[in-house]
Write the structure tokens for this entry.
Amino acid sequence: MPQIASKLSPHHTSLTHINPAGLYDPAPNGYSHVVVAPLQGRTVYASGQGGENLAGKLSPDFAEQLEQALNNMRTALTAAGATVNDVVRLTLLVVDHSEARLAVWADAARRVWTDGPAPGCTLIPVPRLALDGMLVEVEATAVVTAAAV
């Protein structure tokens, strides 16, 4: 029987987060192994959000870009009537990935998903992103159920 990290989160009562006993605990790295979402509801696909601010400027600092990218992701989700607690899957693209950058990500994820488990996530190291100086991009998929609408 798989270990269930959270069957019912305080904000989303229909997502099931599973971290099977045969896999290591992913929580310290800011994600869950499996998220099961219901078939009913709306699926929201937020394009990859980078660390550029409203003026289109990028900080040279990875942590600052990541924080801005997560804020941009929240803005995109909000526009579609979703929240971070509706996110079931993330794709995280990181330029010059390292264990230090993974630690920055894990800390940021814990600050974003404070009320429950983090979504499923794949971190992909990449040589570069769309813009010169862009260090991180966060793509999110969310499921908003009829109860949450």
In short: Strands lie at 3-6, 16-19, 34-36, 42-50, 87-95, 120-126, 136-144.
